[in-house]
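Hi everyone,

Forwarding the result from last night's run.
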Amino acid sequence: MKTDKQTDDLVKSAVQGSRDALEELVRRIQQPVYSLSLRMLLNRQDAEDAAQEIIIRVITNLRTYRFEGSFRAWVLRIAVNKLLTVRKTFAEKKMASIEDLDGILDRHEARGWLARPLEAPEPYLEAETRAICIHAILSALNRSHRLAFILGVVIGVDSQEGSQILDISPAAYRQRLSRARTRIQGFLINNCGIIGDANRCRCGYILPVYVKSGWIHPDKPMFNETPGTKEEPVRLGDYLREMDELGQLTTLYRSVAASSPDFVSMVKKVYDDRRYRILADLQIGAGHY
């Protein structure tokens, strides 16, 4: 997002009735909102539905924004409140703890699934496997720690902003983030072949399992928009091994793209929906400032 001053000016204009300002606000918030939703829910359609509802909540409550703290924090707090009410996902039910992940890998290894790599798998599918795997691992964290991890590691929220979003103290936010990082780091260091050459779990090995189980749909990848991704996990691994553990974690998760759908067209339809009169009621905006 742009500077707070620029964003605050857009908020004021939007509340006063500027459609252009509101559409620009949506363009600025849709990526972090969708990114958070996708990484929490690990399902593209569910993430799109949640992000759309969150954006509608933002624009219909825009006049309640008090310009205290960052606008991004205000938006992401609305997103967090929504996402915490979503029913548990399949991944959450299956992987209630990091120890469950170890057990899953043990069973995969016992069945020989970690010893049957595809011959020269498509690079975009190998990248998709990595993306699905590292985000499925997050499902083994409880939601409060998962939110702190996504906000801090993926979106880059600092402790002050994180405390506003999660409604906790900066110290509590840092503690949650630290605990989440430690648990995820420990699992990856001991198991992920991108992090360590001797580790048992490799993208090319686990890919056939993910395709067979429905975690990956080759024609409709969740994180990689089009077949043709040039990035190669092996080269990423070489790059990661030159970093310290904290740098590895941040780079690994931020290497995954999650391009947001364009929600601006949805907002244009909202203008004409009488359920959301606040967007067209200029008297509300005029009286607020």
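The chain has two domains: 1-87+259-289, 89-258.

Cheers,
N.
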